[in-house]
Amino acid sequence: MRERDDPEVVGRRVQQLRIQRGLTQRQLAEPAYTPAYISTLEAGRVRASDVALRHIAGRLGVAFEELAVGRPAHLATDLRLRLTEAQRVLADGRAEEAAVQYAALREEAETHGLGGEQASALLGLGESALETGELAKAREFFERAEDCLADQSLPVRVPAVRGRAVSHYLAGELRYAVYLLESTLDDLNRGGLHDPDALLLLYASVIGPYMDMGAHARAAQAAEFALALAPRAADPALIARMHRSVARTLIAEGRVAEADASLAKAAELYRQLQLRTELANCHWMRGYVCVQNGELERAEAELRQAYAMLSESRAALYRSQAAVELADVLHRRAKSEEAAVLLEGVLGDFSSERGAVHAAAAHRLLGIIAEDARDTEAAEEHYVRALSLLERAGAAGDLADLCRLLGDLLRRTGRIEAALDAYRTGLGHRTAPGTTTLGPAPAQPPL
User: Fold this and answer.
1) Is 63 helix (H, G, I), strand (E, B) or coil?
2) pLDDT tens sequence across 154-189
3) Which of 266, 295, 306, 385 stands the most exposed, by the fewest C-beta atoms within 10 Å?
4) Rounded to 5 degrees, what are φ and ψ at 351?
């Protein structure tokens, strides 16, 4: 509880409540205190002890906190109920509506000194901002949530750390996102803070950045740990998110059937929880599985469903990322014109600070479509833009593939030296497949 208000404030509060209830100072004081003591307290000339204030609160029929700090009875419980409702609204894909609710709850919690509820509201604001693609704002909310939880244990602070890491990841800052997640995992495991929910959240969240950086070995290990932790986790939403993330590593290893089974489990959990955005992401990942298995028609259906659901939920950045994946499948199915229109429509949602990896993927695919149309100038421009975005993000595997495409284009147009430079750059990123320049892997959980 926050520090008690000044004696003058407490005194005025006692007097107002006493008058509202039609009590005399004697009736309020008896049997433990005198009318003179109540008069002195109401005038603000004495600081009541906790014992005295609890006696007076009992006579007035209010909670001790209402007298001490002006906090209405049951406010904390009411705030938690409303936070749960805001979480449901966010899970239903109505991020903007949820943000309005979270903002009001944060202000109310701050006014009454409820730090835990204020942190929960800030986390909700951060998640809402991630949904709408406002990454800088999301990062600020998560940082403020961490500040509110500064005196709490590390497992309690993990959701805020993870949110901050995801905001950096979506902005294309892969290495910093991995640093945040790995260092927190290391602190938890080395410090013996083996909280299953916290560990599962971190391991599930680090898989995406690992995959985009080409660190497939670490991604596979994180997936293994996440699967081992899942039976101990209390939060079904976390388990569902874990299954979706693990599917990425299974795809990379060619274990398509297992990936599809993992995503089916996630989809069922999300249906039960009504987490529309996460369910849309699950359809998105199932589209990935279908592409790997050569089922392009089914992949298109899954990705169209993901794109439609994310459009309904107004999750702008995620919708645009799904659009890039859908465009890739459309191109493979000889629907290049539709793919190009889709890509041009979402490119404005990306930048070097916002969805850089998918922005690069969009430019790469537009380059390929331009090459097919014999427009080598446009193709080269798209490849160069993609290269710039990927170098900033540190996505090694994608960089190598793009350098090959650019090198082939330059060679076909007679620029041999420039082509060789592009190939050399690509080879530099292929020298150690599946590895990164990251430091030692974090300590392992005691599974």
Assistant:
1) coil
2) 999 999 999 999 999 888 888 899 999 999 999 998
3) 295
4) -160, 180
> How large is the average pLDDT for residues 372-393?
88
- Going from the C-alpha of 446 to that of each of 26, 227, 275, 298, the distances in angstroms are 64, 14, 31, 40
CA distances 279 to 128, 142, 306, 321, 375, Å, are 16, 24, 8, 15, 39
The span from the CA of 178 to the CA of 169, in Å, is 8
**Alpha carbons 196 and 445: distance in angstroms, whole number:** 9
Q: How far is CA 176 from the centre of its chain?
A: 15
Where helices occur in 171-195 by DSSP H, the ranges are 174-190
pLDDT exceeds 50 at position 197: yes
What is the rounded CA–CA span in Å between residue 412 and residue 424?
17
**Structural domains of the chain, ranges and CATH numbers in brackets:** 7-70 (1.10.260.40), 350-431 (1.25.40.10)
Report which of 436, 439, 443, 376 is spatially closest to residue 216, judged by C-alpha positions. Answer: 436
Instruction: Summarize the chain as % helix, strand, coil (round to 5).
Output: 75, 0, 25
Strands (E), 228-350: none
- Write the CA distances from 344 to 62, 288, 322, 331, 341, integer angstroms: 61, 22, 14, 14, 5
Name the residue with tokens 């979402």. Answer: 346
Q: Tens digits of per-residue pLDDT, 402-434? A: 888 999 999 999 999 988 988 888 776 554 443
The pLDDT assigned to 183 comes to 93
Strand partners, 351: 354
Assign 148 to helix, strand or coil.
Answer: helix
Contacts of 10 (CB under 8 A, 6+ apart): 4, 41, 44, 47, 48, 53, 67, 68
Give the pLDDT of residue 435. Answer: 38
Q: What SS3 class is residue 140? A: helix
Q: Do 82 and 124 meet the contact criterion of CB atoms below 8 Å apart?
A: no
Q: What is the pLDDT of residues 95-139, one digit of tens each?
A: 899 999 999 999 988 887 788 889 999 999 999 998 888 899 999
pLDDT score of 436: 41
